[in-house]
Specification:
The protein has a domain of 46 residues. It is built from four helices and no strands. Helix 3 packs antiparallel against helix 4.
Amino acid sequence: MKLIPQSPKKELKPFLKQKPLRSDIDAFKSHLIDLLDKISTIEKRPTDESEEHLKNDLRDFLRDTFSFTN
């Protein structure tokens, strides 16, 4: 089997033509604002557990924002 290298731009071309829905953009913005609020709250705490909290907050942001239940 011979492999033919492709550029990422060529392979992603069909995805670049898709336009996101306005509701998806609004949901992303609201989840991002929530994440940034949580981060700013954690930065005011002592640093002993902030990394673990940030990891969980980031996980929740990704789960809530990019859940593909549609």
